[in-house]
Write the structure tokens for this entry.
Amino acid sequence: MFFSIDVHSDVAIYLQLVRQVKFAIAAGTIRPGQLLPSVRSLSNQVALNPNTVARAFNQLQADGVIETLRGRGMVVRDDAVQLCRSERESVLNERIGAVLAEAWHAGLAKKQIKTFVDAHLGQLCETEPAVLATAPVDDDDP
Amino acid sequence: MFFSIDVHSDVAIYLQLVRQVKFAIAAGTIRPGQLLPSVRSLSNQVALNPNTVARAFNQLQADGVIETLRGRGMVVRDDAVQLCRSERESVLNERIGAVLAEAWHAGLAKKQIKTFVDAHLGQLCETEPAVLATAPVDDDDP
Amino acid sequence: MFFSIDVHSDVAIYLQLVRQVKFAIAAGTIRPGQLLPSVRSLSNQVALNPNTVARAFNQLQADGVIETLRGRGMVVRDDAVQLCRSERESVLNERIGAVLAEAWHAGLAKKQIKTFVDAHLGQLCETEPAVLATAPVDDDDP
Amino acid sequence: MFFSIDVHSDVAIYLQLVRQVKFAIAAGTIRPGQLLPSVRSLSNQVALNPNTVARAFNQLQADGVIETLRGRGMVVRDDAVQLCRSERESVLNERIGAVLAEAWHAGLAKKQIKTFVDAHLGQLCETEPAVLATAPVDDDDP
DNA sequence: GTGGTCTAGACCACA
DNA sequence: GTGGTCTAGACCACA
């Protein structure tokens, strides 16, 4: 389980962790029932203060993605996959809509916007979709 | 000169002001040589803390979009139009690219992303591009 | 706005704050649109670390009860009253049910349980319901 | 000897064990002189950490409910029945009082509280009090 | 070993 | 002035 933290990002570190865990669950890289690394071990691994990691786990718990097993650790909930998947889609869909609407209201022509979009989509095509796409998961996966 | 501020947005209020001014200049709604309202009057009009408005004006000045006319106020610079236009395009292009890349890295299929984009673009088509399109400006305008 | 914290309680301090704010909103002591005391002032008032107060506010925000106004503070949301009221009722109803069920499963006779309940309800009758009952609020209160 | 452990409960597992043993003794399901299963066998049976079971037994011993028979194991003490019964009543009585007082202080009307109580008591009536009622015990039993 | 809570103090953007 | 984030370190119950 690998996480890449960008301390210079404008997104809070603990939120970067939250997002990455959710996306990993949506992609099937992390599975229900799986025990997450402990706060201490993960904070060592990513060189963060344990409180920061704990805050991320706290958020994930509040979001219904993981739950704590007393004295054992945090485990991914059974219904986390569908939760994370639908959240992923709706969040990204909204964000795409917001950006396009902003461009439109800023006065960009629709044709211009389309040109931008196609250029970016073309670039994405060249690189493979990283870990996530290599692990498409069916719910009835072994 | 109308501004719509969303206090619930995750974008700082002063940045919302900056962005709207720049976009209005790019679209020709605000023109070079035009005198901006004073900090005091504008802060009254949009019910904002004067500090917030002043900060926005400072930012616009630092970005080379407006300049002070001694004793008269802030005025839009002659070269602001091309500045704002090119910034508008590059900023929006970058933002579009970032969102699409995020969706891609989150594991969304390219086809899925395209579906989202097309749906949003379709909706935009229905509404006219507001004030901005009604004031198309040539670069050699003032 | 007064809060009473019991540091010896088995309920976490920040949760005591959360609960008291919610109940005060449900009772009408704190109203929508009202600005909560700042983290710093409240932490001084109740002699707690600011982080602890911030954590409570954070929880309240996550629960949709309050929202932050950038640079101004935390404000009670418009829909907080009905939220807190329904939560108050459901939470307490559940807790009552749980205790009665526990007593029942522990082998207490129903008659015995009723005796206990009536004795306690009788005692409650003697004391007035504190601040809360003296401030029954209609939504269309001035 | 059956125990039902809820790992999601906010009550510590070892305390769930302690409570269930005490209630079973109060109800006569477990009787004085009876040998409890060993820590090892019980931890296997209920799939718990042996430490957890041992901790429960320690607590029961500290509470004077069970005692060690050298080389044979833990046995229920002769005076455990009256101990558990009186504790059962006082504990449950206190807990009922606490919940009702909380509801009262939260601003619920007394009438409302009564409605909740009666609804729950009604439901309890429908189901028979499980194992416990089938084993009514006299105090001078063993 | 595990997570939960609390304190203390720093730095930041924002209004 | 406001809240948000992060670090550092302590103590606790629990398994």
